[in-house]
Amino acid sequence: TKRAEGNYINGQRQGEVTYFYETGEVLLTQIYTDDKENGLRKQFYKNGKLKEIGFQKQSIQDSVWAFYNSDGVLEKKVTYEKNRRKHLVEFYPNGKIKSEGSFTQIKAPPQKEKPIKQHTTRRTTKRSGSLTVKNGEWTYFDNKGNIVKKETYSNGKLTKNGM
Predict the structure, then answer these.
(1) Do residues 89 and 96 lie in contact, with contact meaning Cβ atoms separated by under 8 Å?
(2) CB neighbours (10 Å) of residue 67?
(3) Which of 6, 75, 93, 159 has the fewest beta carbons closer than 10 A?
(4) 119 CB contacts (<8 Å, ≥6 apart)?
(5) Cα–Cα distance for residue pair 153/163, rounded to 1 Å
(6) Where are the alpha helices (DSSP H) in 12-157?
(7) SS3 for 114?
């Protein structure tokens, strides 16, 4: 069965490449420049419905991405900047906004290791990188579009809860 179809120039993917499920349905289409994901990406469910769509620049998510359920209903939109989530809007099946808010990056805290077999001591190791956490005002809605709650976060910590 065909797994992929597209142009290869000097061993590098160029232009649109289509990938297929083992059963032959289109899995995804991606635009490439010099073997890097550089353009529109569309991923599909086996039933042919769109699963996600967004743009990549040099293999990095850098735009608004839309995500759909297997019935083709929009579930959420995520804004990415340099592969990091910056903003989220979630939707009810009727299209009304369910929640909306922004994110920031913080340094990852040390993570405790789980004990190994019979040992009861715990060691602490450093986690590298960063975490994506809620930041700023988050608004939550009922399925008719009415605001039901607002929360304020500062670097992932809830600082204000209520209306």
Answers:
(1) no
(2) 17
(3) 159
(4) none
(5) 14
(6) none
(7) coil
Q: Look up residue 118 and give its two tokens.
A: 């019979």
Run of H or E including 49? none
pTM recorded for the entire structure:
0.83
Amino acid at 141: F
For residues 39 and 56, the answer to whether their CB atoms sit within 8 Å is: yes
The owner of tokens 């990095």 is 60
Please compute, for residue 96, the number of CA atoms within 13 A of its CA located in the half-sphere on the CB side: 11
DSSP classification of residue 25: S
60 C-beta neighbours (distance < 10 Å), count: 16
| Inter-residue contact 85 to 132 (CB < 8 Å) | yes
Q: How far apart are CA 31 and CA 40, in angstroms?
A: 6
**CA separation for the pair 101, 89 (Å, rounded):** 7
Amino acid identity for residue 130 in this structure: S
